[in-house]
């Protein structure tokens, strides 16, 4: 049995919520959603429209709508095709004014495939540790990977919000694809940067381990991020496999 819970809300500095989440065929850019399923497959996602793009919220919602419309026919090739087609459409129709980053997870028979572009994230909580499944496509992450700065400097770096890849942007894209397993008693977490730009990995893990209730997990992640000063849009999505 899979249990799902997600919540998204507009940041205090935002005029609208550019975040969006997907749980199977349900998409939202406001509020929360709770569900469960006995099926052996699911599709989830978090997309964050770029604030610098006037149509960022449209781009985030449009991508997840296209994925959801094919929920019952999804394959690896189809998901990649949808993502690339959305990139081409947004670029052609909106001239880089509709861009989004995203993390999408497709699960089938305990095997998960993560599709990622930008600075949203996917984590997996196991009995032993919290594993970050994605790598940010940001200027600061490039500095960290090159050894120019330490990981702890990411939270206060003046250019921490500079994203190097986005869907619908002017440049070509390289979609990161990660394969993993999702086993009983594990949890998946998807977040937008309004969460993980303000909470360190150990803080996120501590919140998840404090309760097995995924609704409490999400609410506590959002509240702690606000407490730490987050003014960005905030989205967290948790899946528990029992």
TrEMBL record:
* A Pfam family hit: PP2C_2
What name does UniProt use for this protein? Answer: PPM-type phosphatase domain-containing protein
Concerning PANTHER family, the annotation shows:
PROTEIN PHOSPHATASE
PROSITE patterns noted in UniProt? PPM_2
Tell me the InterPro entries matching this sequence: PP2C, PPM-type-like_dom_sf, PPM-type_phosphatase-like_dom
Show the SMART domains listed in the entry: PP2C_SIG (SM00331), PP2Cc (SM00332)
| Residue ranges constituting the PPM-type phosphatase domain according to the UniProt record | 2-241
Molecular function GO terms recorded: protein serine/threonine phosphatase activity
């Amino acid at each position: 049995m899979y249990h799902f819970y997600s919540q998204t809300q507009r940041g205090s500095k935002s005029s609208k919520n550019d975040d969006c989440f997907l749980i199977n065929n349900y998409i939202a850019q406001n509020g929360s959603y709770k569900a469960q399923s006995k099926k052996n497959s699911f599709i989830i996602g978090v997309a964050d429209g770029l604030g610098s793009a006037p149509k960022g919220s449209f781009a985030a919602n449009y991508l997840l709508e296209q994925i959801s419309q094919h929920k019952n026919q999804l394959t690896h090739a189809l998901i990649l095709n949808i993502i690339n087609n959305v990139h081409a459409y947004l670029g052609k129709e909106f001239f880089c004014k509709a861009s989004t980053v995203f993390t999408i997870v497709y699960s089938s028979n305990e095997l998960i495939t993560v599709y990622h572009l930008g600075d949203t994230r996917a984590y997996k909580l196991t009995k032993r540790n919290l594993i970050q499944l994605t790598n940010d496509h940001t200027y600061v992450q490039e500095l960290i990977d090159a050894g120019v700065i330490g990981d702890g400097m990411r939270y206060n770096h003046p250019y921490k919000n500079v994203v190097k890849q986005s869907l619908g942007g002017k440049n070509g894209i390289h979609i990161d694809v990660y394969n993993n397993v999702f086993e009983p008693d594990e949890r998946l977490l998807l977040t937008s940067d309004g969460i993980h730009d303000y909470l360190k990995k150990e803080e996120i893990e501590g919140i998840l381990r404090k309760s097995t209730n995924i609704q409490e997990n999400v609410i506590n992640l959002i509240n702690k991020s606000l407490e730490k000063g987050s003014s960005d849009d905030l989205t967290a999505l948790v899946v528990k496999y029992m």
